[in-house]
Amino acid sequence: MTDGSTMRNVHPPQVAGMFYPGDAKTLDAMLDDCFADARTADIGTPKVLVVPHAGYVYSGAVAASAYRLLERRADAIRRVVLVGPAHRYPVHGIATTSAERWHTPLGDVPVDLEAVSALARMPELSINDSAFRGEHSLEVQLPFLQETLGDFSLVPLLAGDIRPERLADALSYVWGGAETLIVVSSDLSHFHDYDTAKRLDGATVAKIETLAGIDLDGGEACGCRGISAALIEARRRDLRVTALDVRNSGDTAGDRNRVVGYAAFAMEDAATAELSKADRDTLIRAAGNALAEAVETRQMPEARLPADLSPPLRAPRATFVTLHLDGALRGCIGNIVPSRPLYADVIESAYKAGFADRRFAPLTASELPRLTIDISILSWPRPISFADEADLLTKLRPGVDGLILEAGPHRGLFLPAVWQSLPEPRAFLAHLKDKAGIGDAPLPHDSVVRRFVTESFGGPFMAS
């Protein structure tokens, strides 16, 4: 597990004085400036952060938009698994250092030697001190982490020539619980003109937010393997991804002829994720406005995104909107694949629930004040592996799982809210089969069942 390099107890700074200030006082002041310039997003507790790694003058404020989210859980985090690309030395598999501590102008950070030892079971892992000489992708994250967390241990990993699935396996070994934070270090596109970079990076951001970027390449993000590995785990573990800030060097400190793209993302548990009350109210009001407009026009309203819309409401999400009239179901329609910003998807789902649900007549103006609007934000649907119907029943999580059942031409979906009226798994599945058109027959051999979780909230009709 070694390349023969000399053991060093402390890994010294490689880019202090270049990518960030080399003395503690100036570094503290620059970090304060980065946080002051950072954009804010009110989201829950992140398990994974994706952050850029350029010089602080270029990408520091973008990175700070992610690190500021750690303030609410700084006391809980005791370990940071830090993954980045190797820029200066070819790495086969995953490289770590022999150092027991990493030093920055703000002090030393201990390496979690026990976690490194656990990773040593993977043949892809090697101790390769040479790969870290002059390398900046991990080092530039440490002062931000020291500023926000104080005391923590580090698992430093450089990802080289390795399949994202195997890197995801490495992350799973050290995933841990609330005490462990995963940080992926990556910039986006490199050295395009400003407009081209905006277009390319926009497409990459959409891939990441919809968990579709499990095959990113180096042209999209230099830390493509780390991001893809994190997204593989996000699919496995029901994480929700939000882009916090997206800019490039043409927006910060460089010219616009040859820019580098930067973005910060947060990944949080979809089962416990919660929008702020302000964002929830914004969505309920957007749905109400869409219904009120459609009552007059009988057409789907155009979803114009407000300029001050928060990052969580700009993120692509799949939603269902359920309408109740005096407590009785009045319509329910939505999407299972995220393809548009959350704000826009709620507008579309609300319109269809009110005017395209074939079980009900179109809404009328007199019904609007009596409506309640319930919004469900769906996680990425995960396939359930099962041998037969009896086995499937044992794997359902009452009150938690939404289910999508597909078998040939048959398809049915139940939101988790259906458990309230069908709390027993056998009855839940039986009614879902009936909805899909299968009836009492056994599940067909080609059945695919996927589960999802939702963030659900609602309130009485309101419009501005």
Describe this protein's structure:
Residues 278-464 form the AMMECR1 domain. This is MEMO1 family protein M2319_000570. It comes from Rhodobium gokarnense. InterPro entries: AMMECR1, AMMECR1_dom_sf, AMMECR1_domain, AMMECR1_N, AmmeMemoSam_A, MEMO1_fam. The chain is an alpha+beta fold and 464 residues long. Helices cover 31% and strands 25% of the residues. The chain contains 13 helices and 20 strands. The protein has helices at residues 24-37, 56-67, 113-119, 142-149, 164-173, 194-209, 224-237, 249-252, 277-297, 311-314, 342-355, 389-395, 425-436, and strands spanning 10-11, 46-51, 79-85, 94-96, 101-104, 107-110, 125-127, 153-159, 180-185, 190-192, 239-248, 259-269, 318-325, 328-334, 371-378, 382-383, 402-407, 410-414, 448-452, 454-460. Helix 5 (164-173) crosses helix 7 and helix 9 (277-297) crosses helix 11.
Concise summary:
It comes from Rhodobium gokarnense. The chain has helices spanning 24-37, 56-67, 113-119, 142-149, 164-173, 194-209, 224-237, 249-252, 277-297, 311-314, 342-355, 389-395, 425-436, and strands at 10-11, 46-51, 79-85, 94-96, 101-104, 107-110, 125-127, 153-159, 180-185, 190-192, 239-248, 259-269, 318-325, 328-334, 371-378, 382-383, 402-407, 410-414, 448-452, 454-460.
